[in-house]
Write a sequence for this structure.
């Protein structure tokens, strides 16, 4: 058994097989639709969630898991004798980080001997997932908690994410683009390119077509990695065939030490809409020496 257990939330977009392979615990964020509450990835999969989003976007919202979900998981792991590293979605995008910290405080009152660290990924989607995977591999190697945290922070410092949206219609929900701008942009067919920097969403540029948007994804990755080996993940919202095509292109144009294909969590998808493509990646200097 590893000395350190890794926990994250479902915004990390980790494929189920990767989470199982590395023993990563995923706390599902909640999806609210009408008068129903669903657990992301548990009783509502991504495809079903995107159908609801397309059906009635104004009835679709999200909420963090309650503190008890974290407290119960923390207690279970601590009782097994493991330390805990919980890596959350950016605290500037969600209250998930605060909920995890509250759960930690409650568990420590119950068990002062527990060792729990909460790390803000300062990002989201598959970028967060890549940070979590790096931490999990470090834990599997038998490293102590402080060493696993150093690994996570190192990857966080070198990680990037870009998303090409097919529509700007829902982007006002990111809090970075005025709603009126999204309405005008939607009418004009504008395709925005977004990134996350310092924990918040930024508009990088706009395109007239998704073809141009995809080229900007690849160009941004090339500018930041060059000939270096990379860890990467291709993301999509409800367009798996296009995601697979982009994955194959990335595999052919980059030296990938790791390359995943995943669907953007509907928790983020509700702010970007269906038809989006994205790339998350990082390259570490010591892997290229």
């Amino acid at each position: 058994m590893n000395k350190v257990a890794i926990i994250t939330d479902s915004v990390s977009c980790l494929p189920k097989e990767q989470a199982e392979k590395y023993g990563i615990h995923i706390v599902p964020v909640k999806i609210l639709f009408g008068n129903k509450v669903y657990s992301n990835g548990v009783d509502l999969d991504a495809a079903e969630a995107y159908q609801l989003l397309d059906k009635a976007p104004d009835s679709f919202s999200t909420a963090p898991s309650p503190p008890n979900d974290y407290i119960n998981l923390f207690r279970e792991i601590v009782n097994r004798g493991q330390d805990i590293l919980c890596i959350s979605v950016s605290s500037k995008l969600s209250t998930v980080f605060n909920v995890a910290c509250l759960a930690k405080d409650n568990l420590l009152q119950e068990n002062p001997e527990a060792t729990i660290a909460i790390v803000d990924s300062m990002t989201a989607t598959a970028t967060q997932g890549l940070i979590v995977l790096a931490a999990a591999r470090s834990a599997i190697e038998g490293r102590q908690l402080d060493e696993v945290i150093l690994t996570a922070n190192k990857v966080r410092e070198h990680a990037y994410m870009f998303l090409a949206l097919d529509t700007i219609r829902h982007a006002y929900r990111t809090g970075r683009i005025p709603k009126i701008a999204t309405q005008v942009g939607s009418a004009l067919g504008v395709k925005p390119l977004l990134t996350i920097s310092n924990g918040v969403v930024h508009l990088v540029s706009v395109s007239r077509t998704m073809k141009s948007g995809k080229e900007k994804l690849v160009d941004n990755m090339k500018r930041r990695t060059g000939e270096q080996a990379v860890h990467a993940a291709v993301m999509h919202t409800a367009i798996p065939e296009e995601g697979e095509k982009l994955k194959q292109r990335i595999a052919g144009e980059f030296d990938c030490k790791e390359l995943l294909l995943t669907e953007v969590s509907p928790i983020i998808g509700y702010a970007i809409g269906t038809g989006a493509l994205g790339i998350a990646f990082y390259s570490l200097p010591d892997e290229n020496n």
About this structure: The CA atoms of residues 214 and 244 lie 13 Å apart. Residues 125-140 form the longest helix (16 residues). The first strand starts at residue 4 and ends at 9.
